[in-house]
């Protein structure tokens, strides 16, 4: 026995030593226990076992092999892997241990796990592995606090921070790197202050020299203000001036020139025989033509101008002294350069001009809540070229006095009062334009007022379908909730730009109650009191997939940029995941294709800070195939290639317009690729770069209406280097602009890829020319709008018009087609595509003009759109809705338009002409609707209650009550129900409550578990899971929740369906102290009998006690597995930072029956855990209704005979009974039935058969 113990202790050490020496050849070993040991590569230093991490799979065996590097896993999953794992386990995606594969694999606790294809036997490659790690146990404690450190600031009259610290030590002798983290903070901070600032004058200095020797001058003396801070000033002047040099001067100029002679105004020296040669280029090296050159002493005078090569000459500039030269040009930042001195007699100067860029806010002020008498800091910062230097702050739309508030970029408010409450925003500008920040609100609460209302607000949760409360017959129960509003908590330091996590109203206490459902009862945890506490901040995730707009080909391994920083890469199927900072206000993501097959596409993503995750289906345009053009000739390229129709416009490139990045003119063959996003093709709307917004002169972001966008790519035919082009003309055919008021407003715009904002390039002018029409028999004169541009750094351009006729459209999303107010969905992406006006108002009803998306909140969503008050059908729109990649259905418009279902009352509904996408063709999808965008008439009462609101009524739209008109979408997921004892809304992660009975124990990591149940039977069956605590002392035999799901028909196999049923995962509870093995009961509802259990699952449950015996054949009971078993067991487990995403992935794998696939079609023959037989019950006798249908005459005659017989029996009974008083008689008649009557009923029932 002692020898076995020694062997058990030595095995992990031997495995570790073997791995350290090199590769490990894993062979099949018959003993299962030996296979387990060889699969877990552990550290001999470990002193205990804790729960393993999630499984990771970041590579596939394509290429050189499968590399599950620890460094890469930490890059993608960061804190989910501890700094020094003590063990590693590897399995294939088919759940085969590494030991059982017979493959050559490598493993290291420092590097991870890897398998190399060329090391495997011929004809085979590595399997697809996933790995997990084990971390050391927690055994640590804190030392005593140190003394408070020095104040962080040394400036006077300032407030700083003092810090004290403590150390985390291990209670066991362990190496320093193995010491686990203690619970709590290792440091504490408090405020400290310094002495008041002072300012005193020094003694006066000596008088200086006189400024002139004659003609009257001045001399000065100075004194210095000795102060301890720049915030205080000395009283009085620092300089005294005295007149001197009163002797009259001769009229001759006194300027002494080493070379040349003074000019007429005696301001500088002039050398008649000297010439200054200069070159002016852009940042990219392109010559800048038409730049104005002037001398520093005469900045407003024009002395020279650059030619087409960016060169200029300035006569009379001496080379023996430095001279300041100022270079200016429109749309460039002015620059000042100085000539260098030399003795050669000639001088040369080079100047570089940077393009101006409008300012862009990178730091916005944030919402704050403070007590009266406190203080607050709002911060604002902007970029631009040149960078803005002056900021203006506004309170409730009124400019704050800079002298009173003494602000620059940041606004500090002291001694807050109630009148300080309201909205604040900043504004800044540079020569290119202005910009405003987003609005931040400040709430000032009176002292002594509770930070938040302790009484919970009403929150109705839906009960199971079979739960009806006696007396009320209600299907809902008020569980209460605390509004996640910001409140005035106790901050460590209140003068930060961002309050960190901040404080919000949250749950302070809950109580357990029991809901009477009639035939059974349900436990529930109800919120009883709210309190101000630190906010729970979900991890904000943006996910999606990038595919081509034409055929959905994925953008594989594309580069993802936010600003100038590369933040990730798309996957093999085009998928991507981005973690977004909580202080992000506007998210601009640029997708770059390294293979140059698709256009580089900047996208402005909307995201949801409450639900934590949002999904975007990103479309990108395929690049147009390049054509060869001669750079020495005039080239014309059409914009728009709709078959049978004229192009929308043309690019006209004059000869010798192309240039290299050095500025040298390119003379040769150019590979030209011009890709046009044609608004006449509605499928291109989703590929729109940016968000079609611009910033006006006041700094407000406003919408644009597009007539087409194009991307240009010019390259050297031989070296494939990018070429620029100057003086390019853009022609827009006015036949495509039938809205005449748009023609004078039309402008050419370019996209700033870092900000996603369109900036003006040039205006258009009229020109008439002869052109060939596509499909026309002769040439005809047409009117074009002509704009001019230079192709420099930016390569995306737009033909747009600012549109002032704007409205908002109110849309809500629901859990089902019952459209219950309590079942609204948050986090749904609603998209509206503005369509071209109909014929008679414009040329083409298929064309689109704008593309907008908004996320639904607790009160739906308001989408911006173009509208018209004169004609209801002037503008139309398509509206769609998507939740985590799943399309929602719109309210139906056929067979009859029902205002109660659509959500809009008559007669306004008829005016809007609502039509779902399948209105005329039932074969089409039901996931969109089309409406007229008729601007509401405020004098018509029927049009003042939504669903379309004037642009000035945005607040009314956002705050509209649930009974106001609105359009509706719903989730097509019938017969699905989820009940949590501790209520939680998965679309609002801030609603999570820390409780032992919480379905999700960790608000930062959500683990979804599903079991696949196959049903043999003609009909789909409802399947329920009841989830109880199994082994944890706080939750044992207590209900976590209920899940109901109807099985889905397998279209490939007759009389077979399957259900992917969610159950409560085993694992740590919210206190992270003890693992709970959840007790799961699977209950098909109906005439069902269990006929098979997955053999591997049964074996696992037996070998991992406690084992629960399923007594009845109509259900199945188990202790939920701790391990993520996989499809071979019929169990599907996915861990993610968002619960909805985790469940969507797990359901997709469950439908597909694999551990790494995804499907929306049920495959009932693979990856199944349980099988039930659910035959239909045979009906032995017909009901009364059925008999009336098949033989009405005979049935009515039989009913008449039965009634006569029944009356005769009653008369006989009444004659033999004793007469009671009137009160007792009624009760006796209702209670007593003669034995003869009881026997008669079944006999007659048999006769009915």
TrEMBL record:
Residues 1201-1212 have a biased composition (Basic and acidic residues). Transmembrane segments: none annotated. It is found in: Secreted, Extracellular space, Extracellular matrix. Residues 1-22 form the signal peptide. One of its GO terms (cellular component) is extracellular space. It comes from the Eukaryota. SUPFAM superfamilies: Carboxypeptidase regulatory domain-like, Immunoglobulin, TSP-1 type 1 repeat. The keyword Signal applies. Residues 359-443 form the Ig-like domain. Residues 1191-1249 are annotated as: Disordered. Gene3D superfamilies: Immunoglobulins (2.60.40.10), Thrombospondin type-1 (TSP1) repeat (2.20.100.10). Keywords: Extracellular matrix, Glycoprotein, Secreted, Signal. The keyword Signal applies. Pfam families: CILP (PF23591), CILP_5th (PF23708), CILP_8th (PF23730), CILP_C (PF23599), Ig_3 (PF13927), Mucin2_WxxW (PF13330), TSP_1 (PF00090). This is Cartilage intermediate layer protein 2.
């Amino acid at each position: 026995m002692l020898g076995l113990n020694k062997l058990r202790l030595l095995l992990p050490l031997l495995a570790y030593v073997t791995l350290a020496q090199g590769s490990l050849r894993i062979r099949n070993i018959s003993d299962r226990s030996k296979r387990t040991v060889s699969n877990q590569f552990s550290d001999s230093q470990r002193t205990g076992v804790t729960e393993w991490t999630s499984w990771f799979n970041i590579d596939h065996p394509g290429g050189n092999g499968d590399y599950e590097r620890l460094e890469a896993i930490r890059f993608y999953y960061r804190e989910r892997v501890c700094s020094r794992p003590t063990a590693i386990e590897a399995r294939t995606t088919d759940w085969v241990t590494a030991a059982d594969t017979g493959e050559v694999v490598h493993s290291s606790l420092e590097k991870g796990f890897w398998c190399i294809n060329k090391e495997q036997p011929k004809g085979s490659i590595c399997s697809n592995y996933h790995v997990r790690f084990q971390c050391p146990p927690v055994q640590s404690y804190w030392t005593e606090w140190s003394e408070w450190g020095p104040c962080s600031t040394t400036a006077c009259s300032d407030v700083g921070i003092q810090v004290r610290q403590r150390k985390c030590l291990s209670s066991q002798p362990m190496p320093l790197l193995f010491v686990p983290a203690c619970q709590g903070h290792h440091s504490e901070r408090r405020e400290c202050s310094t002495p008041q600032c002072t300012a005193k004058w020094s003694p006066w200095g000596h008088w200086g020299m006189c400024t002139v020797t004659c003609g009257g001058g001045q001399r000065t003396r100075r004194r210095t203000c000795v102060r301890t801070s720049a915030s205080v000033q000395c009283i009085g002047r620092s300089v005294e001036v005295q007149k001197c040099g009163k002797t009259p001067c001769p009229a001759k100029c006194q300027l002494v020139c080493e070379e040349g002679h003074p000019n007429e105004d005696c301001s500088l020296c002039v050398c008649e025989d000297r010439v200054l040669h200069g070159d002016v280029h852009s940042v990219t090296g392109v010559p800048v033509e038409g730049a104005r050159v002037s001398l520093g002493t005469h900045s407003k005078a024009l002395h020279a101008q650059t030619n087409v090569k960016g060169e200029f000459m300035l006569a009379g500039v001496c080379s023996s002294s430095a001279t300041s030269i100022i270079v200016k040009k429109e749309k460039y930042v002015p620059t000042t350069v100085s000539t260098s001195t030399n003795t050669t007699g000639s001088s040369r100067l080079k100047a570089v001009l940077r393009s101006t860029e409008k300012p862009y806010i990178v730091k916005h002020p944030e919402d704050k809540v403070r007590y009266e008498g406190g203080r607050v800091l709002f911060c604002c910062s902007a970029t631009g070229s040149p960078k803005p230097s002056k900021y203006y702050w506004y309170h409730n739309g009124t400019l704050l006095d800079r002298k009173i508030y003494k602000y620059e970029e940041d606004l500090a408010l002291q001694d807050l009062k109630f009148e300080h409450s309201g909205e604040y925003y900043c504004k800044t500008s540079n020569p290119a334009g202005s910009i405003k920040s987003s609005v931040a609100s400040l709430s000032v609460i009176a002292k002594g007022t509770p930070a938040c209302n302790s009484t919970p607000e009403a929150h109705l949760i839906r009960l199971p379908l079979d739960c009806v409360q006696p007396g009320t017959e209600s299907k809902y129960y008020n569980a209460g909730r605390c509004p996640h509003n910001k409140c005035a908590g106790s901050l460590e330091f209140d003068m930060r730009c961002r309050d960190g996590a901040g404080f919000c109203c949250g749950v302070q206490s809950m109580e357990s109650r029991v809901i009477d459902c009639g035939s059974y009862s349900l436990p529930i945890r109800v919120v009883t009191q709210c309190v101000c506490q630190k906010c729970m901040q979900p991890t904000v995730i943006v996910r999606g997939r990038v595919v081509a707009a034409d055929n959905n080909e994925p953008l594989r391994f594309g580069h993802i940029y936010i600003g100038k920083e590369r933040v990730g890469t798309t996957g093999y199927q085009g998928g991507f995941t981005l973690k977004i900072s909580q202080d992000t206000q506007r998210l601009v993501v640029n997708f770059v294709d390294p293979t140059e097959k698709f256009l580089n596409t900047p996208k402005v993503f909307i995201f949801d800070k409450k639900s934590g995750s949002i999904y975007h289906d990103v479309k990108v345009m395929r690049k147009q195939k390049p054509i060869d053009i001669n750079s020495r000739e005039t080239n014309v390229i059409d914009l728009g290639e709709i078959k049978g129709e004229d192009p929308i416009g043309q690019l006209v490139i004059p000869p010798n317009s192309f240039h290299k990045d050095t500025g040298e003119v390119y003379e040769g063959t150019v590979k030209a690729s011009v890709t046009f996003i044609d608004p006449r093709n509605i499928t291109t709307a989703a590929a729109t770069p940016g968000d079609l917004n611009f910033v006006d002169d006041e700094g407000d972001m406003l919408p644009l209406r597009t007539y087409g966008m194009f991307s240009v790519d010019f390259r050297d035919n031989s070296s494939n280097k990018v070429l620029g082009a100057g003086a390019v003309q853009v022609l827009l055919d006015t036949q495509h602009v039938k809205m005449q008021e748009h023609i004078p407003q039309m402008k050419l715009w370019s996209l700033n890829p870092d900000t996603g904002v369109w900036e003006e390039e040039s205006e258009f002018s009229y020109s008439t020319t002869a052109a060939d029409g596509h499909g026309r028999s002769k040439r005809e004169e047409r009117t074009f709008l002509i704009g001019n541009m230079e192709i420099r750094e930016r390569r995306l351009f737009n033909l747009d018009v600012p549109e002032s006729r704007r409205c908002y459209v109110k849309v809500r999303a629901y859990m089902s087609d019952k459209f219950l107010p309590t079942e609204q969905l948050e986090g749904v992406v609603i998209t509206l595509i503005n369509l071209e006006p109909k014929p008679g108002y414009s040329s083409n009803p298929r064309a689109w003009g704008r593309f907008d998306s908004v996320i639904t909140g607790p009160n739906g969503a308001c989408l911006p759109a173009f509208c018209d008050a004169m004609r209801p059908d002037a503008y139309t729109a398509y509206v769609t809705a998507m939740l985590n990649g799943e399309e929602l259905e719109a309210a139906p418009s056929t067979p009859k338009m029902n205002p109660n279902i659509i959500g809009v009352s008559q007669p306004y509904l008829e005016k809007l002409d609502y039509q779902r996408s399948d209105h005329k063709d039932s074969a089409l999808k039901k996931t969109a609707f089309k409406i007229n965008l008729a601007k509401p008439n405020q004098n018509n009462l029927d049009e003042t209650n939504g669903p379309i609101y004037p642009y000035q009524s945005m607040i009314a739209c956002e705050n509209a009550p649930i009974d106001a008109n609105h359009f509706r979408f719903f989730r097509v997921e019938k017969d699905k129900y989820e009940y949590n004892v501790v209520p939680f809304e998965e679309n609002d992660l801030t609603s999570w409550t820390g409780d032992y009975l919480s379905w999700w124990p960790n608000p930062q990591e959500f683990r979804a578990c599903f079991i696949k149940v196959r049903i043999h039977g003609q009909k789909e069956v409802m399947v329920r899971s009841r989830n109880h605590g199994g082994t944890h002392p706080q939750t044992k035999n207590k209900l976590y929740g209920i899940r109901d799901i109807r099985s889905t028909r397998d279209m490939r196999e007759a009389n077979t369906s399957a259900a992917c049923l969610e159950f409560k995962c085993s694992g740590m509870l919210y206190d992270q102290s003890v693992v709970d093995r959840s007790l799961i009961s699977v209950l098909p509802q109906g005439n069902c009998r269990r006929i098979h259990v997955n053999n591997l699952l049964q074996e696992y449950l037996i070998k991992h006690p406690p084992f629960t015996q399923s007594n009845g054949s109509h259900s199945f009971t188990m202790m939920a597995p701790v391990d993520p078993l996989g499809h071979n067991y019929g169990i599907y487990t996915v861990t993610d930072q968002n619960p909805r995403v985790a469940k969507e992935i797990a359901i997709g794998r469950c439908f597909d029956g694999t551990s790494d696939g995804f499907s929306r079609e049920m495959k009932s023959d693979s990856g199944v855990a349980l099988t039930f037989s659910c035959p239909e019950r045979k009906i032995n006798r017909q009901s009364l209704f059925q008999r009336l249908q098949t033989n009405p005459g005979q049935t009515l005659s039989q009913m008449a005979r039965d009634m006569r017989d029944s009356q005769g029996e009653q008369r006989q009974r009444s004659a033999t009974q004793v007469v009671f008083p009137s009160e007792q008689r009624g009760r006796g008649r209702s209670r007593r039935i003669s034995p003869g009557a009881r026997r008669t009923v079944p006999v007659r029932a048999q006769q009915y058969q």
